[in-house]
Design a protein that fits this description.
Blueprint (H helix, E strand, L loop, with lengths): L9 E4 L5 E4 L2 H8 L4 E2 L4 E4 L4 E4 L7 E5 L8 E5 L10
């Protein structure tokens, strides 16, 4: 989704290994096949490291969770939680 949550964004890996983005899933279906997925809201793609990052917790790893057979798109993405630190006196 865009920053206002109104326009969906999709992405995938093409057969030649390039990362492709579009706001129309049908445009990417042929070139990306099963790697096509909704771009996770609240994230950005870093070309410097070739990975997704979360705006709120950019140091946390983002994990792809394979989609079930009923779902059209290839994966969902989850941001790993930060460890909870407790203060002791």
């Amino acid at each position: 989704m865009d920053q206002h949550g109104k326009v969906p964004l999709y992405w995938g890996i093409t057969a030649d290994g390039c990362v492709a983005f579009a706001n129309d899933a049908d445009l990417l279906k042929v070139g990306c096949g099963k790697s096509l997925a909704s771009f996770p809201q609240g994230c950005f793609y870093s070309t410097a490291i070739g990975e997704l990052r979360c705006y709120e917790n950019p140091k946390n790893k983002i994990t792809a969770v394979p989609a079930t057979e009923e779902e059209i798109l290839g994966a969902k993405y989850m941001v790993e939680a930060s460890p909870i630190l407790s203060a002791t006196q």
